[in-house]
Amino acid sequence: MTDLDIARSVTPQPIGAIASRLGINPELLEPYGKTKAKIPLEALHEPQGQLVLVTAISPTPAGEGKTTVTVGLTDGLNRIGERAAAALREPSLGPVFGIKGGAAGGGRSQVVPMEDINLHFTGDFAAVEKANNLLAALIDNDLQRKNRVGLDPRTIVWKRVMDMNDRALRTLVIGLGGKAGGVPRESGFNITAASEVMAILCMSRDLDDLRERFARIYVGDTWDRQPVFAADLKAPDAMAILMRDAIKPNLVQTLEGNPAVLHGGPFANIAQGTNSLIATRMALGYADWVVTEAGFGADLGAEKFLNLKCRAGGLKPSVAVLVATVRALKYHGGVALTDLGTPNAEAVVRGSANLAKHLENLQSFGLPVVVAINAFAADTAEEHEAIRQAAAAYGVEAVLSEGWARGGAGTADLARAVVAASKGPVAPQFTYELSDPMEEKIRRIATRIYGADGVVFAPAAKASIKRMAEIGLGELPVCMAKTQKSFTDNEKILGRPTGFDVTVRGLEVSAGAGFVVPLLGDMLRMPGLPEVPAAEHMTIDGAGRIEGLS
After folding, report:
1. Which position among 404, 457, 487, 515 bears the catalytic label?
2. 546-547 vs 289-293, strand pairing mode
3. Backbone angles phi, psi at 457, to 5 degrees
4. Among candidates 313, 322, 348, which has minimal Cα distance to 334?
């Protein structure tokens, strides 16, 4: 059975029943059909639950199942008598129609309604697009209408966005067509998940905070090099109006009828990679345990979750779960993608150097860690044992996670291990201080988290750092844009490399979100489709029945 077949085999409970199970008055909900709803912000309570962060080793191109483990662990905690909820991101259409085909978990560990969640859901991504593109339209209208704020068109950094992988839109010339067509200039599109509006949505505490963050969006400079912000274009209120519903988190359920709060969807390789602060706090206000995930490997999603989201939102995870697969460890041990299904315990041992570095990093943040071995049918007992031994060298328990095949019954042991680990000491630490110089913040992440020897700053990066200091943005934290496939800025270097430098080719400012984005390697904010997109395998019949989402 496919993931979609499994999702359809279960009859979801009415969303009001899920709200009651979480402790939210169903009368407060704003239903979107029978199985999904918005939770108004007046339902927010002070956080009282324990937070579990699910992250992973450096993944293979298909990912290692963090969402599957997150959903499975939520069901497992409920199976052993705990009161747990999941807090997840919303899928982007880019990966859904690109390489993944779906991003709502897998097998018996999914959130539903699966088709809705993977497609337009409750319209949050559309609202983010519209708010982003409204600012873009106001910028170009100001240029057309005698340029009241004095913007130098050559300095404008704000781009339009679309929730699709479309490399042809990365760099464009806009404003053609004579005087009526606007002022010609170079621009382009980012994918919606990588937009600053998405980042702002996920870092905001409420609607007022959202509007204030919109006001701080950096647009470009005037002709005399003074910074121009969205507030100068009188954009923040109109942008916030478009987001008045999108700021409310979404309530759905797992296949086992446990609550899941979904909200926001930034990527972790080019944005902060975590769901919204509002959604996490909403879940923590009602559940005793909240299981959340941060995108890609721990060098990206977990680093940003801890240094950015936890710092801004006052969150303190009780334990981290590091997802590892036999497949990925063999990949890091030198096995080709086409041979990952062949048993090879020796390659698992070699690849465990990657696991070890991620364990060291998580422990450097002061967190207890449990390794979740996300099981695949082709795994062998010897390969699982190799992972257990690698984790044991760091005083960490590695537990088999069989959520894909068995749901909560297959993650009950993992749930018990998480509860036990959470009783240990937690001493949260950040990788850098906000008062550190920008170069030092970047250098500390590169050397301490990636294992680099140092950082090379290209001339454009040095100029950007100087400019940020001039306009008062020097103390912002950093959100690294780097390949998810390697600790380095070269996706082809796997395992646990040593003796390397990383190069920062430039920096982008996300002043509204509250961070700066150093660009490492060839990372782009508008991905392209793979050679064979998942979209090619999807169908819909005359009754509207979809096939091919997986």
Report:
1. 404
2. unpaired
3. -105, 115
4. 348
Position 358 pLDDT exceeds 90: yes
Q: Give yes or no: 296 in active site.
A: yes
- Rounded Cα–Cα distance for residues 499 and 467 (Å): 31
- Average pLDDT, rounded, for the chain: 95
Q: Assess whether 89 carries a catalytic annotation.
A: yes
What is the per-residue pLDDT across 105-119, written as a single tens digit (0 to 9) for each? 999 999 999 999 999
- Residue 478 CA to residue 303 CA, distance in Å, equals 10
Interatomic CA distance for residues 163 and 483, integer angstroms? 20
Q: How far is the C-alpha of 70 from the C-alpha of 49, rounded, in Å?
A: 16
**Domains along the chain with CATH numbers:** 3-122+246-421 (3.40.50.300), 124-242 (3.30.1510.10), 438-520 (3.10.410.10)
Contact 74, 291 (CB under 8 A): yes
Q: CA-to-CA distance for 109 and 94, rounded, in angstroms?
A: 22
498 is catalytic: no
Give strand pairing partners of 294: 274
Task: Look at residue 43 and tell me whether its pLDDT is greater than 80.
Answer: yes
Has 404 been annotated as catalytic?
Answer: yes
Residue 158 appears among annotated catalytic residues: no
User: Is 305 an active-site residue?
Assistant: no
Q: Strand 160-162 relative to strand 259-262: parallel, antiparallel, unpaired?
A: unpaired
Task: Note the helical H segments in 336-380.
Answer: 345-364
- CA dihedral defined by 460, 463, 464, 468, rounded to 10 degrees? 180
Q: Which of 89, 159, 248, 350 is catalytic?
A: 89
User: Please, what is the Cα angle at 394 between 348 and 335, to 5 degrees?
Assistant: 15
For 129, phi then psi, to 5°, come to: -60, -50
Rounded distance between C-alpha atoms, residue 355 and residue 176, angstroms: 52
Candidate list 36, 66, 108, 160, residue with the active-site label: 66
Tens of pLDDT, residue by residue over 237-286, are 999 999 999 999 999 999 999 999 999 999 999 889 999 999 999 999 99
Cis peptide preceding 113, ω within 30 of 0:
yes
- CA 429 from centre of chain: 21
